Amino acid sequence: MRIATWNVNSLKVRMGRVEEWLTYAQPDVCCLQETKLSDAAFPHMAFSALGYESAHHGSGQWNGVAILSRVGLDNVVEGFSEGLEADEDTRLLTATCGGVVVSSVYVPNGRALDAPHFQYKLSWFKRLRDHLDRVADPDRLVAVCGDFNVAPEDRDVWDPAAFVGSTHVSVEERDALASLEEWGLEDAFRRRYQEDRLYTYWDYRAGDFHEHRGMRIDLILVSKPLADTVTWAIVDRNARKGKLPSDHAPLLIDVATGV
DNA sequence: ATGGTCGAGTATCGA
């Protein structure tokens, strides 16, 4: 089974690129973030024509997450599990696809270390862990995919010195990510690659993509039983090139689950 | 290393 995640930065603008990409990348499950669409505007039919069932959680304008699947799409949970504070800005969607509990997540950016949004980001991470406690089991097949807005280590940013005092690299954010790993998740990409300078996001400004000034903030976190089946992983940098690209590239992994 | 760019919506704000 091939699992992908892609922050598309407006599905309305990106739909052509996404359709083209699905036809050549052939993911079985694809998590999307920042659709910036309402549920009513989500193009279920267009994805159906490509062979995908789809679920979407969005309120329009900002955020919005989706899961596409051609191996089944069941037990859909919009936002956080019942009993937890609601996911008011539509950043989380969970479903079971081909025996794997899959979440599409768009973690809040945080804006600045001293901003209220930064505390919100940390509390959002805590809620995500509580959510996983309720809807998933680390001893089974779980993949939490998306834009985490955290670079796990210094080698995941183009110049650590440039990020001192910034969000995405702070101890608190990395601890929040580590808490998910303590729950029983592992960074699937890092199981395959140890090199630095491997990124998933490049700012549109200042020619950052062409100058290799990027960050690795899009992750697929997998439970141990699933991690043991990972056979392949890649960031598709080609999808960041050309006309009307997202500022993120898709991340893909192959897992041997038998589906 | 924010200023450069995008996409929201149509003046700025957010990333």
Search tags:
12 strands; 259 residues; DNA-binding; Deoxyribonuclease I, Chain A; 25% strand; alpha+beta; six-stranded mixed sheet
Summarize the structure in short.
By secondary structure, this protein is α+β, with helices and mostly antiparallel strands. The protein contains six helices and twelve strands. The protein is globular and about 45 Å long.
Domains (count): 1
* β-strand number: 12
State the CATH superfamily name.
Endonuclease/exonuclease/phosphatase
Helix coverage percent of residues?
A: 10-25%
Number of helices: 6
Span between termini:
6 Å
Major pleated sheet: 6 strands, mixed
SSE order in H/E notation?
EHEHEEEEEHEHEHEHEE
Low-confidence stretches: none
Q: Can you list the strand order of the major beta sheet?
A: 3-4-2-1-12-11
Structural class given helices, strands, pairing?
A: alpha+beta
In CATH, the architecture is 4-Layer Sandwich
Radius of gyration: 17 Å
At the fold tier of CATH, the topology name is Deoxyribonuclease I, Chain A
Shape: globular
